[in-house]
Design brief:
A hairpin with a 5-residue loop joins strand 12 (213-215) and strand 13. The strands form three sheets. A six-stranded mixed β-sheet has the order 7-11-10-9-6-8. A five-stranded antiparallel β-sheet has the order 1-2-3-4-5. A two-stranded antiparallel ribbon has the order 12-13. By secondary structure, the chain is of the alpha+beta class. It is built from nine helices and 13 strands.
């Protein structure tokens, strides 16, 4: 775990500024609640290409853990890809939602489609913040003001958005809270073919133990005592 360098800090702040604008100062200057009189703040730290946002008191305590044993710290804001670009992760939604400049609200019928990873269409749009332009970072809410995710605005502006057809694309989905279930499902599945073969082999061996296998003259086998008795009588 280490502090971000100048290039990494610029990439992180530019991405956050796209969604929250000048409200970025509220995140950077956020005081550390433990202890409040020490004058500490929240900071960004890099661990295994992931950027974490945590109070300084938590960072100091995390220094006692070795790098290979430290799995997470505070809030995971995003990660750096192999090409060096920075992408926000869904864990930062609670961090950017209160300070979002541009917002859209989805109709109840369109919420599940968005939570399955689909983009937002004009037919599912309930409300939208005025003066939203192309490529603006937008936070998606339900009609009851529950944060659902975030993405990038596609139309030229809000006026062009109102003129779209019902199947016109309004927002590119870059993250939604449905990812929590989708990621959990992926973790439960075998990670590679070798692991899948091991699972199949274990299931086969377990099934083989439960059956009374008897040999035959041609080198094969017949399963079960009933099959053996039937073959013996014939």
């Amino acid at each position: 775990m280490r502090a971000l360098d100048v290039k990494e800090t610029t990439a992180v702040f530019e991405k956050l500024f796209k969604f929250i604008g000048p409200n970025l100062k509220h995140i950077v200057d956020r005081p550390d609640p433990d202890p409040p009189s020490a004058g500490g703040r929240h900071c960004f730290r890099l661990q295994r290409n992931h950027v974490y946002y945590a109070p300084e008191s938590m960072v100091r305590r995390a220094l006692h853990a070795t790098r290979d044993r430290l799995d997470s710290l505070g809030v995971c804001v995003g990660r750096f890809t192999g090409s060096g670009s920075f992408r926000l992760t869904i864990q930062c939604l609670d961090l950017i939602a209160p300070f979002a400049r541009r917002k859209i609200w989805l109709k109840p019928a369109a919420e599940m489609q968005f939570l399955y990873g689909n983009h937002v269409l004009k037919a599912g749009l309930g409300r939208i913040t005025e003066n939203t332009v192309m490529n603006d970072g937008v936070v998606v809410f339900s009609m009851s003001d529950l944060p659902l995710g975030f993405g990038v605005f596609v139309p030229k502006d809000t006026q062009a958005c109102r003129k779209l057809e019902p199947n016109g694309m309004v927002l590119l989905n870059q993250g939604d809270i449905g990812e929590y279930l989708r990621m959990e499902r992926v973790e439960d599945e075998p990670k590679n073919q070798d692991e899948e073969r091991k699972v199949k082999k274990l299931k086969f061996n377990k099934k083989r133990k439960n059956l009374a296998m008897v040999g035959t003259r041609n080198g094969g086998f017949v399963g079960g005592r009933d099959a053996y008795k039937k073959r013996k009588t014939t």
